[in-house]
Amino acid sequence: MSDRVMTAAQAMYEGVVQEMERDDTVFCFGIGVDDFKAFYGTTKDLHKKFGPDRNFDTPLSEDAMTGFAIGAAMAGYKPIHCHIRMDFLLLGMNQLVNIAAKARYMYGGQVSVPIVVRSVIGRSWGQGAQHSQGLHGLFMHIPGLKIFAPSTPYDHKGCLIAAIRDPDPTIIVEHRMVHQQRGHVPEELYTVPFGRSRVLQQGKDITIVAISYMAIEAMRAAALLEEAGVSAEVVDPVSLAPLDVDGITASVEKTGRLLVVDTDWTICGAAAEIAAAVMERHPVPFKRMGYAPVPCPTTKNLENLYYPNPKTIAETAYQLVHGKPRTFTAPEATEIIEFKGPF
Amino acid sequence: MSDRVMTAAQAMYEGVVQEMERDDTVFCFGIGVDDFKAFYGTTKDLHKKFGPDRNFDTPLSEDAMTGFAIGAAMAGYKPIHCHIRMDFLLLGMNQLVNIAAKARYMYGGQVSVPIVVRSVIGRSWGQGAQHSQGLHGLFMHIPGLKIFAPSTPYDHKGCLIAAIRDPDPTIIVEHRMVHQQRGHVPEELYTVPFGRSRVLQQGKDITIVAISYMAIEAMRAAALLEEAGVSAEVVDPVSLAPLDVDGITASVEKTGRLLVVDTDWTICGAAAEIAAAVMERHPVPFKRMGYAPVPCPTTKNLENLYYPNPKTIAETAYQLVHGKPRTFTAPEATEIIEFKGPF
Amino acid sequence: MPDLARFFRQLYLIRRVEEDVARIYPTDKIKSPVHLSIGQEAVSVGVCEALRPDDVVFGTYRSHATYLAKGGNLKKMLAELYGKYTGCAKGKGGSMHLVDAAAGMMGASAVVGTTIPHAVGYAWVQKVKKSGRVVVNFFGDGASDEGSWHESLNFAALKKVPVIFICENNGYSIHSRQLERQPHANLTERAAQYGIPAERIDGSDTTLVYDKVKKAVDKLRGGEGPIYIECLTYRWREHVGPNEDYGAGYRDRKELEPWLEKDDVRRLGAKLPEAERKRIEAEVETEIKEAFEFAEKSPFPPDSELWTDVYA
Amino acid sequence: MPDLARFFRQLYLIRRVEEDVARIYPTDKIKSPVHLSIGQEAVSVGVCEALRPDDVVFGTYRSHATYLAKGGNLKKMLAELYGKYTGCAKGKGGSMHLVDAAAGMMGASAVVGTTIPHAVGYAWVQKVKKSGRVVVNFFGDGASDEGSWHESLNFAALKKVPVIFICENNGYSIHSRQLERQPHANLTERAAQYGIPAERIDGSDTTLVYDKVKKAVDKLRGGEGPIYIECLTYRWREHVGPNEDYGAGYRDRKELEPWLEKDDVRRLGAKLPEAERKRIEAEVETEIKEAFEFAEKSPFPPDSELWTDVYA
Ligand SMILES: Cc1ncc(C[n+]2csc(CCOP(=O)(O)OP(=O)(O)O)c2C)c(N)n1
Ligand SMILES: Cc1ncc(C[n+]2csc(CCOP(=O)(O)OP(=O)(O)O)c2C)c(N)n1
Ligand SMILES: [Mg+2]
Ligand SMILES: [Mg+2]
User: Fold this and answer.
1) Of the bound ligands, which one is closest to the alpha carbon of residue D142?
2) Which residues contact A24 (CB under 8 A, 6 or more apart)?
């Protein structure tokens, strides 16, 4: 159904509209959701469609706005709190970690906090140290939170709907370069399950587990690897918490090698966890890739070194498979096509 | 020199006094540092000794007080910011992660932020979900931060002095049950190096890497294991960032097995990182232990299940060494002796 | 119409429960911190008596009074302090996390200032739903230092939500006086700058608190909001734990004296006919005795409870 | 004594630099966001002209004006925007993180509200050292929503530190008007409640800003502090990027008109003898041309720079 091909951002928009039609208690809020930029287009005119109480702007008050969402959720509503940058979640950490993740437990089951936190990784166009961070590693550390990090338009819609309907606090890790990816999206309402990974491409020589935008880069790397005779299985975890350790391990049992590629740092990150969890069950040769362990530089030539890319992913995978290096020639970087400035 | 045996809390006090005598720009501040409880006795009367500008109380404003420390550090002072609970650092995350860890980098080397953040894990006496957390896993994830988590009185003094003198932002993870441990502490000023682990006990069958209070529990477990004929090498990482991966790996190369025990959750935590980093270099059978992946319950019987203890550590280690279970009988839990309420 | 007998009953109940908690504390049966409200009961009672059962309150770690004043179950509270399975949070929360959703006590947090925005969010939903329900948030002079206070008041005023901010100003955050943390003792004036009707009152006068809150509640039910009331009060015991601490050096026992004179447990008790007062006292004593027995006898949670209530 | 020629030179420099940044932007040579101060220059110039070189300022992501007004090196600024190794942050920071420690520009952060407490900490050290140096913090009406604003003002007032809070109120946070985020446009009155002398002034009048700040600085050097000044101003271009955005729907071009009339680049220029104005303009144009050439010609940082400046 080629008429149902759309971007991930459009899929988010479609999903939220359908859920807001279905359930009156669902509402969006956050800085800029009702302006003409409309949170990357994903909340476009929702206030006109559903009224100003269901899509509204806020002051710059990430701490209290997170608490506000928690209070509204305790009262039975389903807030979708939108952050144009994941970096700003650091201002809401106390509410997310000390309250949202713990409320049901410390209140002995009397209280639920079904909030959805949408946060976008702002990589591209020289965002620098404070506007480019993927920080899902921090949140995976905290029991009580659920986390999605979709890479396909299909999963964007399905994860959003699942998050809205779920009684637990859920963080959706988005990526503005992923927002522009296109793919088939069914019209009907559907959910994507928590705790289930998705095999994006089957392969037999190595399992590449790749998160968010890195799933897209990994698919590009897999194409390069194929030319070099290496068959890579690309697995998108989709759900970072709970994590589909069984599913990922099954793939690794088949291929015998593991490469984890993240849009985040590897130390105490998803890459560390996935590697450790798989190794506990089925030890194989493995490697981790992610941000260079430094703050993100602004200038393009250093930024290019900071992120894994199809070339470095293919080279690392090749080395793991064959035990020797091989140089790959990467196609032109697509970053600027996927998101162009100024913001 | 038995006259130099003291508690870790006393060692902290001695270290800070000596550094404040040596360097006029060193100062302590934080909620309650100048009251009669004196931050577990570690800042006792420093304001009387050095004046009210060098040991002062603050409003409840963890976010701005962290920023205040950063500003004072930029001006060339050496702030020691004291938090009676590590849980409260979540309110200062934005300043710690978005500024302290990144300032020198994003300002191209023009600015340094030599702050010391002391934060105490408040386990014991029914602290519950929000007053007991070790959260060092979160901070290890962030490049630009340095982290110490000492377990001996000797290292408490040496880490504090090293942190004060270091030009980078450093977090010291303390533990109020560790505060009561006694040991030899030299009178002179000395530093403990970043990035160097400490072998607390040599052994040949298994390496137990154990952090903060878990180093003490691991030593107790090692005694149980010895009775069962298992020789455990107990390694205290001391410095969590940078981490002494080489030193830990060398121990694992010798023993052939690894058990990591943390006072924090294992998912995306120090235990995940240590396991993954060692496995990348030298794969061996390993296990991770830490908080149960739930918020901390308040009631004692559930809390006992939440934490690793000498019995469960010994049992896990034994299973790793012998591939079969064995039940250990633990001595009376020492928790209440090491810290008794009400706070 | 304020019902003095009812006020007295609630004040007496809270005072006596906490005195018994303090008495039992040295036995270590309660193995977790307790922050007593002794001396501050009039605030919770005055406020909660002006509320409907379906109105909602959010508290702090110092919430024994709030919980009981809002009609929270006493047996479940004491069982919670004892860490028992029959506690309001199954023993998982303890004294700092009292909750009784059925009674409209929506929870208490041990991280200072964190429930202020919860109350705003909860109240915003009431406004959108036009439920007529009112939300109250209790917090201290210390909590007012936190950024969440500013952000929450600003947003509540912007959205005009039906929330009453009750600042229980006992003059201290742990051992720090208000003027050691704030340049002026003018929290009410600060709150007023957000366009919130704000008033500072004597929080030891139950009837006064009741009257002010009653008027506020009436306004809020009509769709106006928020309102801020600073209640001056005094903590008689140590910040945490069962004892007095006038010897610790940070405050003098002289400070306590005027508050002892204004103690509404005594003042209101004295206004009741003696027989009635005695009857109420006897009833309450029985209730308390039964609740402690209930707590003592109840079982600890089964091990499996470690794993429940994390995810739904 | 205000030196009008000097004011004009600084205003003209900043205006022209930013116009050229906007002109060059579509070439994609500057591959990072730019938040232009066009229209707001009078605030930075009026404030910084009243400071000594060893006084210190902290800015925001919108700090081209602040950086230049404080005497930051123009070549290094443009090289930074171009991502070059010769930039003030070696290309690692970009437009949002301008810094020139030697000139007293201590840095700018892209997370709104984060530098307010830095200024307080820096100023506190000056007070303790009795250095006589003064610290200024620039932030917006949006930043005033943040909890850090409340916490920082409270603490600065408590400790009486020599900091001047300059609220550059341009009426918007991105596309949100102040009254869409705050119940009243009374930030000055809010600040005053912390016991801080606070005043709202027309931020388009360089001389007025200068006079007010000069008086404030004199007070602070004597050991008093802090002081708060809200400067009303207007952002002529879009929030981020090189263009105007009056067609976007959130504001009308009519709003701009009064500000165009009060434009001090024109007003002050007109007060100078024409020859002097022309000479200044020519000098500045040369300086700008050279700086752009410098930026263009400079090399990008070597790969090894990825790894430096993380740890000392
Ligand atoms: C965010 C945070 N900072 C510090 C603490 C430590 N602490 C616990 S209670 C308290 C005092 C709070 O004072 P106030 O709000 O006036 O309430 P009171 O105890 O007087 O009832 C402090 C500082 C905490 N629990 N949370
Ligand atoms: C903590 C935080 N929240 C949100 C943003 C997104 N953001 C960037 S600039 C801006 C507007 C801030 O407005 P104001 O302080 O008035 O400064 P102005 O841009 O008007 O100069 C916002 C909301 C951010 N960078 N940081
Ligand atoms: Mg108080
Ligand atoms: Mg603005």
Assistant:
1) 2
2) none
